[in-house]
Amino acid sequence: MKSRRNKKQVPSFRKLLKTSKVKLENKLKNKQFKQQSNLKKYRKEQRKLRQAVKDAVSKKPIPLEDPKKKRPGKRIEREEEEEEEALPLDMMDEDDLQLMKDLGQRASFLTRDLSSSEPVHAKKRKHENIIDKYEKIPRSLQTAPEKELIHLLPIKDKSGIIPQTREKPVLDTNQDEEDQEEMELEEEIIEDPIRELTIEEHLIERKKKLQEKKLHIAALASAILSDPENNVKKLKELRSMLMEQDPDVAVTVRKLVVISLMELFKDITPSYKIRPLTEAEKSTKIRKETQKLREFEEGLVSQYKFYLENLEQMVKDWKQRKLKKSNVVSLKAYKGLAEVAVKSLCELLVALPHFNFHNNIIVLIVPLMNDLSKSISEMCCEAVKKLFKQDKLGQASLGVIKVISGFVKGRNYDVRPEMLKTFLCLRIKEVEVKKDTEDINKPKKFMTFKEKRKNLSRMQRKWKKAEEKLERELREAEASESTEKKLKLHTETLNIVFVTYFRILKKAQRSPLLPAVLEGLAKFAHLINVEFFDDLLVVLHSLIESGDLSYQESLHCVQTAFHILSGQGDVLNIDPMKFYTHLYKTLFKLHAGATNEGVEIVLQCLDVMLTKRRKQVSQQRALAFIKRLCTLGLHVLPNSSIGILATNRILMHTFPKTDLLLDNESQGSGVFLPELDEPEYCNAQNTALWELHALRRHFHPIVRRLAAHLIAGAPLEGSEALKPELSRRSAIELFEAYSMAAMTFNPPVETSSSKRKDNVLQGDSFLNEDLNQLTKRLCSEADTQLPLDFTRYLKTSLR
């Protein structure tokens, strides 16, 4: 009968190839562990056998008649020596080894202490006399010193094993101690004390260490970049350098590693979010390439997570300002490390909005926007602004807005205004409105079966059916879904923004956040729901009338009100005359000594209030604003004068009858009242724009050109018409183009050309050739012998 074949076959080479690297490593580890455990067991058995042999040899019977002869010393003290000098079992024959094992099993007689007369079963005797037992023990006298024995290899005879011993030579302990002390003294003399390094040597040594660390970081980073999938484990090695313990280079190395890892993650991170695998996906069989990709993704996500935790810990260490036990990094260096960590977090926030743990980064960055350190606060605010500007879909922006809104509410609106100013960078131009979406996205109607049968032939119906099918597929593939998702995200984002703004308007009207709120409302006012318009305008007017606002904040109120009225607010029956009056009154608060930021807001307000609402503006109002703007142009900076004159040019084109201000004759009754704050009743038609003549002699060439253009009536053609580079730009663009922020002339002053001549002309070259010859002839014929008598002519003149 054939033997039963083993069902467990040896795996084929192809199957071994499919086995993952991790499994092979685990198998190898298990194999090594089994070998080690077997080896330990074998060593334990050998140790037991050696112990049995030693016990048999050491317990040699000593006769009672010779009490002076002493027994060997205690086994416990000589255990290590005997173990070294014991018989190695590998050198013995098999018969000897078997005999030793039998002795180990039946060692009761050999191991019994024959020096005692106690029988083997003495424990069973209950009435043993203790004194007699003690008397039978031989006495040992302290006449001779105890001698140590060295056990040699035993000799085998017919009778059995004969142990061999030898006395160990006794050394003088005092001599040994003296020799040891002499050796220690010599070693102390030989060892030179560590020489203290100078500052220069210390710096050179630090430079060498730092260079080595830099090369190591560069080697690891280049290896990861060259092949990320195979070298993903080197990320862990590079990240371990964040725990550098050398105090000379610890801070610098940690900063370099943080920046290097940040750049590496920006380069090797995929453009999608890595999700954890389900149990079903883990159990399914996959190809080798897919398994390799999964291992890379898992390693990348885990190392990215640990890296973010390290950055968070650096920031916490700086916040807590507590030294660690290692004392490698000083308290002063914590801020530098924290700044580098925050910078890396900001870079990752902007560069990887699609990747894992982005929300965790947002939660770390938002509180730092309100940090006491100005540099860190500005760094975080700039990163958030950059994220808002580049976020097209709106998913990342919505996450940041939610966290900021919750943080502002949690701090009871006691935050930096820069946090709310980041809202101005949101890319929101339209929101989801039901009516508009129904009008814009009307579904295309396909022909019914009856219409097709009535109007089309059989072949045409067949083609029409295929065409409609293709159209449906194209519509599904289009970005219509992403557009709807984008509108939905933008609507939700804007709702949170307006909730934050309205809370501050309601509860914290005297907060330093109010200017940022008003500026934000001015930008997004056209997207506010019509239901809130009446209440919002009442709040804005009450804020202006309270007098607690600065001129810039009140300008933002005016701007917000007119943005509301210019959008969906056209349907409302609201008279904004009080806002016109307030702007007219506020204009003279602007001057060259103050900042120019207010002029830009004024130009925006004038564009919304006068140009875009031309049908609702009367001629008297337009004349009053043109006159006051010309007066304002005399005492502001040059770029502000350019913007104001450009606005007047647009108003003169929008309201043609305002050219009567260029005439010095009065129109109608009354006298112009420049101090009156009501533009409708100041009689601006009875004055003239005399300020333009003063501006015509301005030091700035563009101001002079615009003033001359307005004096001529702002013509579109002719010699006084403006060049296209001036006429095609808006007032705000001209204001920004000729800005004086750099404290230089814009445009720069032309350098005067050098009037020095290379060749100096002689006097003869200026004369005519004939005149030159006559002069020479007369000079040569002059009679030098006759004396010159000037007195004769003087006397005749006196008579």
TrEMBL record:
Region (Disordered): 24-93
Annotated Pfam families: CBF (PF03914), NOC3p (PF07540)
Domain of life: Eukaryota
Coiled coil: 449-487
Any one of the GO CC terms: nucleolus
Composition bias, Acidic residues: 79-93
Molecular function via GO: chromatin binding
Protein name listed in UniProt: Nucleolar complex protein 3 homolog
Source organism per UniProt: Myotis myotis
Species lineage: Eukaryota, Metazoa, Chordata, Craniata, Vertebrata
